[in-house]
Write a structure and sequence with these properties.
Elements (H helix, E strand, L loop, with lengths): L5 H6 L6 H17 L7 H14 L4 H8 L9 H8 L3 H10 L4 H7 L5 H7 L7 H10 L11 H13 L48 H9 L13 H19 L29 E6 L5 E4 L4 H4 L9 E2 L10 H6 L4 E8 L7 E11 L6 E9 L1 H10 L1 H31 L8 H31 L10 E2 H16 L5 E6 L7 E2 L3 H18 L5 E9 L2 E7 L2 H4 L24 H15 L3 E5 L2 E7 L3 H14 L1
Parallel strand pairs: 8-10
Antiparallel strand pairs: 1-2, 1-6, 3-4, 4-5, 5-6, 7-9, 10-11, 11-13, 12-13
Length: 628
């Protein structure tokens, strides 16, 4: 059972100085901001009362900065309403930072002060129902007042003929502002005076909202033009300021992700561009699981984050541990664990955590985790790009690493067996010869596995040429008689055509390897007195070879046909260390690489290969003669 006494603990903190008061204020905003709107207790009431007391100690500018801290979402409508009634700076920060649901906004907006409502209109993430409610409530402050068509034409002419005047570095304000000057504490820069500005066509009227002017000044934007600056000249300057700010953002000269720092067009108020979202962030934690270091510009948003306290999620197709808390308790690595982070827009959402524990090299004490946060979407895109060859490359890398020690063992065994470094007992030489033979068998299996991987991924192809598959088949069956005749087993060749030649566009060595691999595997699986009929002949644009399966293979289903059992490896003619199933799969890959196929049809195997016509054969012979 767990008791959440964080609020009571924060309320017990002393507030004897401004530094302690700021710490308590931020902690209260963080805890109260995460509570649901219907949370009621003596601690919650005491927390709101303490906020009112801290308002008398902490200046408004400092409180606004504390409220606007990243990774501190305001999800409590009650707290947002209370902060919206404070000074303009605090209200602006609260409205900008609030992260409420659409239903909560619909309930809260009618009770907000007009100035807070005006600031809220500049958010673009509230939903259509909230925007409709703001329009219904009435205050039109989304952009500059619309101008008449004649004035717009003259404005474009003035913009094309007159060079732009010097402007301030900060982007211009986009909302209608009062004619009153901003408060003295506002940090916003002022535009330099113009030299003989063009006469205005008509003074642009502004909404006389003094409170909204103070809130706009707290945002750090430029003050509105005075009556002498209003008109075409002021609008031209604001257009130029907007263009310069947009170019700066396009060149990457912006340091933070705040949506309200994005410059707005003078007309129609273009929506802000989405914040920059990092694809990966490196981090490290302390022994309690809190992030103590993070890489990149988003480090302040992650410092202090409790990794074990994040809600864990699992996405389809992504393997995640049973629980982050359990893994961290047992000091286990975190592999592809998905967590949900709430906070600043740049880091909000689902992340994949990969981290390993760190231990002190001297004492062995657990020091925390170090790892990386990744966006699952990025991982999915990368995985889709390398899905075709990723597994094959990893398998070939493993084979390379296994082949190296096998070669070393074989060389050492041959040195002992051949007594290259001096005499050796006969028993040692016999053992060394057996070890060398086993290593050769293992290396041959590695070669077959590597060949299968390269064939199935399209990296390796069979060498083309010309050979008679019928002659290769007859020679292979004769070579296998040394194994089949003592067992009274073998193959019965049945020609399906009068022409015994089966020309195929395949090099003879490749054809011999394919036919031997296939028939040696079948011969090794035959029982005593088992004869397998073999039919061969021509077909449309190719040749066909059909052989009956031994009873042991015919009894297998299609699902386990290529599986390897322990009894398969005992057959001397299985032609490989991985058994009959693997050998048949390799033969099928070779047939596919030659442009044909090897598939099972009931109790028979059918091999189809592209054939050569008589015209192709004559052309090949004539080409070879000209080459000679």
């Amino acid at each position: 059972m767990h008791f959440d006494d964080r609020l009571a603990t924060v309320l017990r903190l002393p507030t004897t100085g401004e530094a302690l008061a700021r710490i308590q204020y931020r902690q209260l905003v963080d805890i109260l901001g995460r509570l649901p709107a219907n949370a009621r207790s003596w601690a919650v009431a005491a927390g709101f009362a303490q906020l009112r007391e801290l308002d008398k100690i902490i200046p408004a500018a400092d409180r606004a900065r504390l409220v606007a801290q990243p990774l501190q979402p305001l999800a409590n409508p009650r707290l947002v309403a209370r902060l919206a009634e404070a000074e303009p700076q605090v209200a602006t920060a609260a409205v900008r930072t609030a992260n409420l649901t659409e239903d909560a906004w619909l309930t809260l907006i009618p009770a907000l002060p007009i100035r807070a409502r005006g600031i809220l209109r500049h958010r673009r993430d509230l939903g259509p129902q909230v925007d409709a409610l703001l329009e219904q409530l009435g205050v039109q402050d989304r952009a500059l007042p619309p101008v008449e068509a004649m004035e717009l034409d003259m404005l474009l002419e003035v913009e094309a003929e007159a060079p732009p005047a010097p402007t301030a570095a900060a982007p211009a304000a986009t909302s209608p502002s009062p004619s009153a000057s901003p408060s003295p504490t506002a940090p916003g820069p002022t535009a330099p005076p113009q030299a003989a500005p063009p006469p205005p066509l008509r003074a642009v009227e502004t909404a006389p909202f003094a409170e909204f002017g103070q809130a706009t000044a707290s945002l750090g934007v430029a003050p509105p033009p005075t009556n002498t600056q209003a008109g075409i000249g002021a609008i031209v300057r604001r257009i130029e300021e907007f263009r310069k700010a947009r170019e700066a953002l396009g060149n990457g000269h912006h340091d933070h992700d705040g949506a309200f720092d994005e410059p707005r067009a003078p007309h129609n108020d273009a929506a802000p561009s989405p914040p920059r979202v990092p694809a990966a962030i490196d981090f490290s934690t302390d022994a309690e699981g809190r992030v103590s270091w993070a890489d990149g510009i988003h480090a302040p948003s992650l410092i202090g984050l409790d990794l074990s306290g994040l809600p864990s999620t699992e996405a389809p197709g992504i393997e995640a541990p049973a629980g982050i808390v359990s893994a961290m308790r047992h000091r286990l690595p975190l592999r592809a664990a998905q967590v949900e982070i709430s906070g600043a827009p740049a880091i909000r959402g689902t992340w994949q955590v990969d981290a390993v524990p760190r231990f002190d090299p001297v004492s062995g004490r657990f020091m925390g985790y170090c790892g990386r946060l990744r966006r699952p979407a990025v991982l999915a895109a990368v995985g889709a790009a390398v899905q075709g060859h990723g597994e094959a490359d990893r398998l070939r890398q493993v084979l390379h690493e296994l082949r190296t020690p096998a070669n070393a063992i074989q060389v050492a065994a041959e040195i002992i067996q051949q007594q290259l470094y001096g005499p050796a007992p006969h028993e040692y030489r016999a053992l060394a010869a057996a070890i060398a033979g086993d290593c050769a068998h293992i290396l041959a299996g590695f070669e077959e596995l590597d060949r299968l991987v390269r064939l199935e991924t399209g990296v390796l192809g069979l060498e083309t040429g010309e050979c008679d598959l019928g002659a290769v088949l007859a020679e292979t069956v004769n070579r296998l008689k040394a194994w089949t005749e003592p067992r009274r087993s073998g193959f019965a060749l049945i020609a399906m055509t009068d022409d015994a030649a089966l020309p195929v566009p395949l090099d003879r060595t490749e054809a011999e390897r394919l036919i031997w691999r296939l028939f040696a595997a079948l011969a090794g699986s035959t029982a005593f007195d088992e004869i397998l009929p073999v039919e061969w002949g021509r077909e449309d644009n190719g040749v066909m070879l059909r052989v009956a399966l031994p009873a042991s293979l015919a009894a297998r289903t299609d699902e386990n046909f290529h599986e390897t059992s322990s009894s398969d490896r005992g057959h001397a003619l299985s032609t490989g260390m991985f058994g009959i199933g693997f050998t048949l799969r390799l033969a099928a890959a070779e047939a596919a690489a030659a442009g044909g196929s090897l598939r099972r049809t009931g109790a028979r195997l059918e091999l189809h290969l592209p054939g050569l016509t008589a015209l192709d054969t004559d052309h090949s012979h004539s080409s070879r003669s000209r080459a000679l």
